Amino acid sequence: VIVAVSLYGSGQLRLWAPLIGIAVGCAVAWPTGILDVSEVSKASWFGLPTARWPGLDLSFDHRFLGLLPAFVIVTIIGAIETYGDGIAIQRVSRRDSAPVDFKAVQGAVNVDGLGNLLAGLIGTLPNTTYATSISVADLTRVGARRVAIYGGALILCVAFFPKISALLRAVPEAVAGAYVLVLITLLFGQGLRLVSAGGLSYENGLVVCLSFWLGVGFQNQMIFPEHLPGWSRSLLDNGMAAGGISAVLLTFLVSLRQRSGHRAILEPSVGSLPRMRELLDEAAAAAGWDAPAVHRLQLAGEEALIFLVERQAGHDKQLSALHEAQPTPAEAGPRILRHMAKEVRHEQYHDLDSLTVVVDSRPLA
C-alpha cells in the first residue's frame, strides 16, 4: 500500500503514504485476530514515565575492560553513521542543488556525542541519528525543519500519554515490518547515492562491497564463528561494528596507495598562481598529458584558486547556482571551471571551503 500510494498518489496524498499503509495493514489484521487492542483500553490517558536512576559505578574491573572495546567501536561507527546521515538528509531535503554544509554535519556529530554522554550519566540507552528519517523525507518530499520540531514535541508528549504509547505498541509486527521494509529499501538507495556521489571507483567499490558482506557474514555467524576468540564476539557479532571496522581499515589502505607526491601548501591569494602552475605542469608531465589537456588543467586550476580566494574574501559564490540563461560577469569563472572540469565538488566546513576538481585528459565533448 505504501509503495502504491507513493508511486501513483498525488503530491498531497504521498505525504500520508506511511500512515495510510499502517492504517490499511491494521484494518486487514483486525478480522484475523492479529490486532490486539486490549492494552489500549486498559491504559490510562495521562501518566508519568516510570524510571529509576541506577547510579554511577566507577569500579573499572575486568567486566568494564571487557566491554570497553565494543562500546568504543560502536560509538565510533555511530558517529560515522551520523556523519553520513547529516550529508544525506541535506541532499534529499533541498529543492535546489547546493554544496553540503558541513557546519550542520559537525553540529549533528557534536550533539550526538553530547546525547550519548548524558545518556550514560542518567543510565538510559545511548542515542544515535536514525537514518529512517532520510527515507521518510525522500518518500514524502517534505524536508522542512518545523516538521522535525513538531515531531520531536509529539514524541515528548507521547511519554506522558500511556494510551498513545499502547496504541503504537498494538500495531502488529507484520505491519510494522512491512513499513520498516519500505524505509530500509529507500535508505539503502540513499546509501548507494552517498557512496557513488563522487564516482564509484574500483577502490571505493571494493571497500563498500567487501565491508557490507563482511558485516553480513559476521552478523549471521557465517565467518568461522567457532574459531573466533571469545573477546572478539562482542565486536564481530554486530554487523555494523564488523562492517565499520572493515571499512575503516580498507579506506586506510586505499589512502596509502593513493597518496601523491605532487602536494603543496599555497597562500590563499592570486600571487600563488605561478607556483600552482608549476605543480600542475609537473603532475601533467608525469602523467604524459598532451598540450590541450595541460592547458585545460591549468585553466581549471586557476579558476578553482580564484574561486576559493573570493570565497575567503566574503563573496558568497556558489558553484551549484549557475543555471541561469544570462550569467552575470561574477559567474563567468565558476562557469568556466564547470566546463573545463570533469567533476567539481564544493564542501563547506566551519572555517574551511573544500573544492575538489577532477580534470580529464581526454578532449572535451
Structure summary:
Helix 14 runs antiparallel to helix 15. A three-stranded mixed beta sheet has the order 1-2-3. It has 16 helices and three strands.
List key phrases describing it.
about 375 residues; mainly alpha; three-stranded mixed β-sheet; 3 strands; about 60% helix
Radius of gyration: 26 Å
**Dominant shape:** globular
Number of helices: 16
Q: Please provide the count of β strands.
A: 3
Please give the share of residues in helix.
Answer: 55-70%
Low-confidence stretches: 321-327
- Tell me the quaternary state: single chain
Mind describing the biggest β-sheet?
Answer: 3 strands, mixed
Structural class comes to: mainly alpha
The succession of helices and strands, N to C, reads HHHHHEHHHHHHHHHHHEE
Mean pLDDT, all residues: 79
What's the end-to-end separation, in Å?
Answer: 45 Å
How much strand content do the residues show? Answer: under 5%
Strand order of the largest sheet: 1-2-3
Give a written overview of the molecule.
This protein is mainly alpha-helical. Helices cover 62% and strands 4% of the residues. It is built from 16 helices and three strands. The protein has a three-stranded mixed sheet. A hairpin with a 4-residue loop joins β2 and β3. α3 runs antiparallel to α10, α11 packs antiparallel against α13 and α15 packs antiparallel against α16. It starts with a helix and ends in a 7-residue tail after the last strand. About 2% of the residues have low confidence.
